[in-house]
Amino acid sequence: MIWPRLQEARQILTLYHLLNGLISTAFLCTKGISMICPWIFVADDGKCEIDSREREILMFLAVVIAWKGRKATNWLHYINNIFLFSKVANVMLFLRADALVGIIYLLIVVAITVVVPEPIYSGPEKVTYYQGSELFEELDKDRKSFFVIQFYTTWSPDCRHVTPVFAQLSERFSLPNLRFGKLDVGRWPKEAERFRVNAHPTSRQLPTICVFRDAKELKRRPIVGEKRRAIPFVFNQV
Predict the structure, then answer these.
(1) What is the pLDDT of residues 170-200, one digit of tens each?
(2) Where do the Thioredoxin domain residues begin and end (predicted)?
């Protein structure tokens, strides 16, 4: 995972990150504020101390976040992992303390997720977006250049997390004979079959990054094993 520079850190100054930060720390905040705690945890007799079971859940959350952080493509992906698993832990903690409060918290999480989605990357990039058979035709037409192609879908979270990394790499390394491109295999399933990319909702091959030259595939990540299962691969700038 690559830690951000000050300019990049401004990307978290959004309503999405603010609201998710608040609901991710909701349990600890409500337990720690003596004026609020008795009103929320009525079923728990207004106890504002974190008991041993709650401590175990929080420790397990810390372990999961640390483990998932090793596989994050960048620091924004890492923060989103923190939000995701913290909200799951908060649901468990609130439901354990008071079922009604837990249900209300879950509804708030769902509402925020729907109304305030994760921001889409809008930074600079030197990427060509191909439609239909355009990529196949371009590979056949320009056989001297290297093509770094990302096969993606708009609904895949992993594809969204890789987007800023791929864009930044294209900005740094794009040359007349080193071209970066993307193809939406969710929209063009026939092209997914042509380039042997599994675009099924349960697929572990998304996103797939391929390097082409002379209309031939040179490298692919993730690699597909003997049992047709994708071998996990973390795509970052390192």
Answers:
(1) 998 999 999 999 999 999 999 999 998 888 8
(2) 112-238
Three-state secondary-structure class, residue 217: strand
Residue 27 burial (CB count, 10 A) = 26
Contact 197, 151 (CB under 8 A): yes
* 3-class DSSP state of 218: strand
Domains of the chain (ranges, CATH numbers): 6-115 (no CATH), 127-221 (3.40.30.10)
Q: Which residue has the tokens 């990319």?
A: 197
Rg value, the chain, Cα: 22
Cis ω before 124 (30° cut-off from 0): no
Which of the residue ranges 10-24, 65-79, 117-131, 149-163 would you say has the lowest mean pLDDT? 65-79
pTM, two decimals, is 0.71
